[in-house]
Amino acid sequence: QVHLAESGGDLVQPGGSLRLSCAGSGFSLSDEIMTWHRQAPGKAREWGETLWPGGATIYTPSVQGRFTISRDDAKNTMYLQLNSLQPEDTGVYLCHEARYSTWGQGTQVTVSS
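RE: above sequence
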């Protein structure tokens, strides 16, 4: 059974950092196209970052240079390093796997002073 589980969300002050994790089970994460998405309060879910099996990455312009997507194949886990966080980054962050169209449950990131 394909399953994704996010963790690492927290309350952080503007300018702070977090590292989110997306642990996969039931499939090999390194073989699949993986993405991160954010759903801000009262808004639609938005795509943020993509990590291809070969390691290529792409970012939405608003996070370019601040967020970094990566993967640890031994742990079957994908990460999202969030730096220079801003209040508009607040939301539930979810990871997604393309082949089986599987979503995790999400992890809450709140940026506030």
